Every structure is written in structure tokens, then in C-alpha cells.
Amino acid sequence: MFLVTGIGVAPGIAEGRAFVVRTRRRDVRYLVAADRVRAELSRLTEAQGRARRQLEAIKAKLAGVAEGAASLFEAQLLMIDDAMLVGRATAFVRDERRNAEWALRAAADELVAVIGGAGDPYLRERQGDVRDVVERLVGNLRWESRGIVVPEGPEPWVLVADELAPSTVAQVDWSRAAGFVTEGGSWASHTAILARSLGVPAVVGVARATAAIPPGASVDLDGTTGECLINGDASSRVDWHRRSAAAAPSGHWERPVGGTFNGPVRTLDGVDIRLDANLERPDELAGVLASGATHIGLFRSESLLGPDGRAPDEASQCATYRRILAATPGEVTIRTFDAEPEPGGRHLGLRMLQVDPARHAQFEEQIRALLASASAGRLRILLPFVTDVDDLRFARRAIARAAEALRHAGVEVPTVPVGAMVEVPSAALTADRLAREADFLSVGTNDLAALTLAVGRDDAWAARFYDPLHPSMLRLLRFVARAGLRTHARVSVCGEMAADPRALAVLIGLGLREFSMAPGAQGLARQLASGIALRDARRLAREAFRPDDQTERRLIDAIRDIMETRAAH
Ligand code: PEP
Ligand code: MG
């Protein structure tokens, strides 16, 4: 029994058995239920059959062309049927109920140790072949196409992974898994955002989690405190759950699981606060609307892109946008594709459109699809990673040209407001100019904090330096809020910062009134916004500016005082 602690990024308690995944190595480990062992054995045999056929095809292709290479694959074919590999793996599945991937890797580790210890250089060379064969076998267990397949079990699983890509989290069947723990990640990573929007409790940044937590171990996870109890016995589990309940955000506040959007939110002294919903993927829309949301403050349209970065064709994009617009009673703010550059690639932000013809063509196609869908509802177009007014002007010209061409072709195109994300420090520092030319601004605090503080938003190692309440951020946010007030431009905040009640109070105190966040964060945000008076929020904003390193502590205490005084009345 032991505890591991990381960063709680999606609230809620999850209990289950560890399902260990090393995504970088395509390595999945869990204990197969007793009545699933036969099915697991056939999965292994089928993979062996497919791998054998592939190797025979490779051998046949090389025969007569490269005889030496062909014989290499002859050796691999022998390994496929070696009793020490698949035979041994079969025993691991049958006798120890390990899943097929785990069994294969364990058998390979043994085999590699034996041939590595043989002292024979020729045999040592064969270690690489063993690995090659095992990768082929594991690949044939169908990892790639279906992502992480969580098997049915008598108990739920808790995923324990080195890292989980957002697309992987989106694919997992969360009716079978109760939550996840990862080694990488941070509060503002897309994976964490997705976990909050799916309502899946999650803890990230647990160093060496996949090594420390054994497959099949019992895991109790608290997505608020970031604490996980591993293999707890009955009495320590009871204690742990009691402590966890006591540590729920700020005393009597409810846990923000799947909060609803019932009607307008007003501060105690009557200031309207708008809370919109961020939408990650189109298939979440029905749930978001069912919880009462009126406006979609941010739809991250890049969720439509394929793994290769390709967009659906114009007509199917248009159909998707129409569907979202027609179903939503209020405004729908659709952000144009905010695709990350290739690893190691350049990130020029929206300026990329000016230098990369492929990106530009993709942007134009999306703009046409958006404009052609606009008559179906109340569309707003939001541009990501704007650096300055030149960017905005460039994009606006392209939008105006597309609208003109569509109208010319007889398509009805209403006027669509065009807004700029403020998520790059250069945009925040020129927000006064942007506010004069954009129809609205939307502050992306996730990237703004990362770029201002030079801390990668996915960087678990440096997560403690990622502080959206850092004085530099407060100054930038105050500047942006004032720019909005002076120019009468609407300014909203769609980054995750608003989902943290301390930060939300400060943002209200700085003059911001519109927010958009993951649906799961609404409950707590509503409680905060409707339980605070503007003068309290302003006081908290002043507190936040006070130069010492206890800011966070003071804010937590101050908010708790305010809320508890209210509750007492
Ligand atoms: C942000 O950067 O704050 C934001 C809302 O955009 P994303 O999280 O999609 O980068
Ligand atoms: Mg961003």
C-alpha cells in the first residue's frame, strides 16, 4: 500500500484496477478476468497467424532479390513459432491472467535476457530481431486502429499511462474506465481540458507512475487533490475517502461534477456574468445543450482534423457547422483550426497563413464552409494565435473575399462577427489596437500563461512554474480588460483559468464579465459568480496584485471567508 501524488486536473473520485499503458512503447498491461482468458488466448493466436503471414509475404518479396535479407526473415518466422516466445506468452496469459501484450513483452524480456547472456555475438545480434518480432505481434493485436481498448471487467479500470494524447482520451470507452493517472501532462494541457469536459477524474504529473503502479493494483484517485492510494486495505481506503471528501474545494462547495447552466448568473450586487460552454468535439454538443448551455463560447474546430492534420472536405465541414449552429439557441463561436505545428516545427501563430500556402488553402476552405453555414444560426468566427493587428487584417481580408465570392454565387451569407484570440503576449500588449478592429476578443489564458512564463503547458516537470495568477499575467489581463472597456469591445475569457474559482473571482474583479469553460467547471463557477459581490471581487483582484509569494493561499482564504459568510446568512 502506498500513496502517489500528482496534479489533480479533473475533479472527482475514481476507484478501479490499474490498467497500465505505455503509449510510447504501445505497451498495455492489465489482468484479464477469469472468464476472458480463452478469448485472450485466441487474440494471441490470431495475432501470431497474421504476423506469420506478413513475414512470409516479406520473405517471398525478398527472395531472389536479396537472399541475405530473406534469410533474416526466415529467422524471424522461426521466432514467431518459438516455444520461448508465443509459447511462453501463452503460459503467462493462461496461468497469470496477464493480457496478451503484457505476456508477449514479458516473454520477450526473458528471451532477450537468455540470448544476451549467451556470450555469443551472433546470438546477441538476434535480440534486435526478437524486439522486431514482438513489435509486429503487438501491432497485430490491433493497437493502432482502435486506440486503447479497455476490456469489459467486473470492476472499472483506472488508466495509468506515461502520456495520453487528447485523441486517445477521446477514443477510450469511459464507461469501462473510471479515471486516469499520467506521468506527463499539466492543468492546461488539452488532455486535461478534455478530461474535465468528459467529467473523467484525472491526475497528471505522477513521476514513474507506469513503473510504480503494478497492473491490476487497486487505485483510488482524487482528481481534486491529485492524491492516489495504491493497493489500500479496507480501513485505509475508508480513511482516505474521508480525508478526500474533507479536502473538497473550499469547505462546503459542491464538487463541480457536470454542473448545469440554469439561467443567468448575477453577482450579489446585480452584475451579469455570462458563463458559456467550451465545446471540444461536435458529439459532445447534445450533452452540453442538455445541461442547459445557451451559448458555445469556444468550439475547438481542430478536433475535426484527422491524425495527419487533414481537414474534412468543405461540404462535410459545412454540414457539421450547420448542425452545431442549428442546434444551439445562442451564439456559437467557432475557432478556425488551431493546429499545432509538427514536432520541432515552427509556430508562427496566425502569421503562418501568410507564409505557408498549404495552411492558407486550408484556412480559405474552412472560411468558405463557415460562411456558407452561417445562416443556420448565430455564428462568430474566432481566429487563434493572433499576434497583432496585421494578422487580424490579413485574415479579415480573406474572410471578406470569401463572403463576396459566395454571395456572388448566390449563397446567403449574413454578417459574421470576427474575433481574435488573445493568447500570445504580443496580442495582449496590443489589445487596445486589436479591440478597435476586432468584433470581439477572447482571452486564451492557457497559451498566454505558457508563453508569458516560458513554461510548456504540457510540461509536468515544470508545472509548478505554470501560474496563471503570476503578476505578469495579472498585468496583461488588466490591460486587456481595460482595452475592452475603453473601446466597448466584448472581451471574454475562454482559457481554463476561469474554471478555477480563485482566478475567476480575480478576473471578475479586473472587469471581465464573459467566460467560457468546460461544461464540468460550470457548477463551481456559478457558485462563485453568484455568491460574490463586485466589491469583494475587486478586493481580491487587489490582493492578487500584492507582491509576495503567498498570493494563492491568501486568495483561497479570502474566498472561503466570503463564501462562508454568505452561507451563514
Ligand atoms: C487557450 O490557449 O487558453 C485556449 C483557450 O485555447 P487552447 O486551450 O485550445 O489552446
Ligand atoms: Mg490556445
Verbal overview:
With 569 residues, this protein is an alpha/beta fold. 48% of the residues lie in helices and 15% in strands. The protein has 23 helices and 18 strands. Strands 1, 2, 3, 4, 5, 6, 7, 8 and 9 form a nine-stranded mixed beta sheet that branches. An eight-stranded parallel β-barrel has the order 11-12-13-14-15-16-17-18, surrounded by five helices. It is globular. Residues 250-258 have low confidence and may be disordered. Bound molecules: phosphoenolpyruvate (PEP) and magnesium ion.
**Cα distance spanning the termini:** 44 Å
The molecules bound to the chains, other than polymers, are: phosphoenolpyruvate, magnesium ion
Tally of separate helices: 23
Mean pLDDT: 87
Percent strand: 15-25%
Give the helix/strand class. alpha/beta
Shape: globular
Low-pLDDT runs: 250-258
Q: Share of helix among residues? A: 40-55%
Summarize the biggest pleated sheet: 9 strands, mixed
Radius of gyration based on Cα positions: 27 Å
Number of strands: 18
